[in-house]
Specification:
Strand content of chain A: over 45%
Radius of gyration of chain B: 13 Å
Shape of chain B: globular
Shape of chain A: globular
Distance between the termini of chain A: 40 Å
Radius of gyration of chain A: 13 Å
Structural class of chain A: mainly beta
Largest sheet of chain B: 6 strands, mixed
Oligomer: heterodimer
Order of helices and strands of chain A: EEEEEEEEEEE
Number of strands of chain A: 11
Largest interface: A-B, 24 and 28 residues
Number of strands of chain B: 9
Helix content of chain B: under 10%
Structural class of chain B: mainly beta
Chain lengths: ~120, ~110
């Protein structure tokens, strides 16, 4: 059974940092592109970042480029999102998602981890 | 990259059919057959309901169906059930560097 389990969320002050993790199981993690998607209040689901199966290619949404870094450890079957210079507007639930192997959609998602940026 | 446009809310009585629209542009919905739909109950993982415009993953009820015409995709829920009450999001492949764009989301209420 495919499982994606996020962790690492919490309360952080503006300007602070947090690292999210997404532990994957039940599939060949190193074969799949992976994404982070967040639920922006009033906007719904918003794509944040993606990483290629080997980690060699990464892309970011304009709103987080230069502040967030996506990475992965295929030996540990884990996806990461390093979040720096956090702002109040980054407060939301962050989901990791697996991109389908042969098309463009997300076939599995995690339940999400809540990040709260507040003083 | 602007979000795809969905109605904020749609409601129906049990057994009725409802349709959720998802409007984009020729750079996303209209240009590719890569529209997908997700059901999201708050606090849970989003669930894939439709992919590649009209295909249902294994295990998804056949009372969910998808279609597309021009720059607008649609999700139809036939025979609405109480458990269908959730938020629904469309997503499309886009020619922009982000590769994906999400819809604004639709809250489905079963009356």
């Amino acid at each position: 059974e495919v499982q994606l389990v996020e962790s690492g969320g919490g309360l952080v002050q503006p300007g602070g940092s947090l690292r999210l993790s997404c532990a994957a199981s039940g599939f060949a993690f190193s074969d799949y592109w992976m994404h982070w998607v967040r639920q922006d209040p009033g906007k719904g689901l918003v794509w944040v970042s993606r990483i290629s199966s080997d980690g060699g290619s990464t892309t970011y949404a304009d709103s987080v480029r230069g502040r967030f870094t996506i990475s992965r450890d295929n030996a540990k079957n884990t996806l990461y999102l390093q979040m720096n210079s956090l702002r109040a507007e980054d407060t939301t639930v962050y989901h990791c998602a697996r991109e389908a192997y042969s098309s463009y959609y997300f076939d599995y998602w995690g339940q999400g981890t809540l990040v709260t940026v507040s003083s | 990259q602007s979000a795809l446009t969905q109605p904020a809310s749609v409601s129906g009585s049990p057994g009725q059919s409802i349709t959720i629209s998802c409007t984009g542009t020729s750079s996303d919905v209209g240009g590719y057959n890569y529209v997908s739909w997700y059901q999201h109950h708050p606090g849970k993982a989003p669930k894939l309901m439709i992919y590649d415009v009209s295909y249902r993953p294994s295990g998804v009820s056949n009372h969910f169906s998808g279609s597309k015409s021009g720059n607008t995709a649609s999700l139809t829920i036939s025979g609405l059930q109480a458990e269908d009450e959730a938020d629904y999001y469309c997503t499309s492949y886009t020619s922009s560097s982000t590769r994906y764009v999400f819809g604004t989301g639709t809250k489905v209420t079963v009356l």
